[in-house]
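Appendix B, Record 12. Input sequence as logged:
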Amino acid sequence: MAEPLKNQFDRALLERLARRFHDVHPDFDETGFVATLATALSALELKDRINRVADELRALLPDDYPTALAIVVDAADDPGIEGFPAWPLCSFVERHGLDHPAASLAAMESLTRSFSCEFAIRPFLEHHLESTRTSLRGWTRSPDEAVRRLPSEGTRPHLPWGPKVQALLDDPDIGIELLELLRHDPSETVRRSVANHLNDIARNHPDLVVEICTRWQSDPTIEPSMIRHALRSLVKKGHPGALAVLGFTTSPEVDVASFSIDPATLSLGESITLTTTLASTASSPQHLVIDFVVHHVGASGATTPKVFKWTTVDLGPGESVTLRKRRRIATASTRRYHAGVHRVELQVAGQARAEGAFELLDSSPR
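Logged structural output:
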């Protein structure tokens, strides 16, 4: 089992931050910073740890916010503060900079090079929407891909771990305007964010995303993988428009000759093997997307479905194919397993066509 991310934010990391802030601002209480936080963080989860560090920085830096902010930006300009250690610096702006939007937004352009300000930008979208949109438009032209990624990632309607911004849910055009400016970005990281943003929009506006992807697909300079990734959730749901954009058969004509799950019972950490044989009943070739759905048992006994990719297959008239898929049933950072019977469905073009089950005998460790 992977070590929790929160454990990376330990005393050694605090000492690294303290040294850097003391280098930039000699009045910074390096010893007090570490002593106050080293014990306090142990009882907190990841985001609470990040916020607690940001709040302690605010307490120890000058009362004047622009002065304190300049110190934070200078502290981030160090290779040793890139990545995870820089997250509290972004949180500093998120939690304490709303009354100074111009200075805070300018600082984010710099800070996001060290750690993405996708969370920090959210309250500014909530409280200073138009000035924030102006900054975001400008950042789409930055020579730095980390800065260009922020307009797309920071405005995702359903950003993981990000606070909700109602304006982004109500008006997808806020984000779409930025995606149109980034759709040809040379960076795969930026294009991946564009696709994830469209996938978010598809939760509430599926037909709009299909329309956008249809239009983009007619441009030969658009990266096809970006469109496939943007439509992934709609494909799993069998949305006819999304399937059609990607060239999949929307109304499959197949018989499921067999579908089995082996073993029928297993322990955590072991694997299941799914096997199915599909036979075409169509008079023309079919391009089929095959997925499977595991209905995970929760702590209460209720189940929650999760769709997993299997494969795509081309099936000619009268042809049949046998497919196998192995999946390990193990704890992940986003999922705990609970003992019980887990139902599994075979999906063809988003349609459930057969089902089976396996019984998990033990649960994930707490």
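Residues 254-360 form a domain with the Immunoglobulin-like fold (CATH 2.60.40.10).
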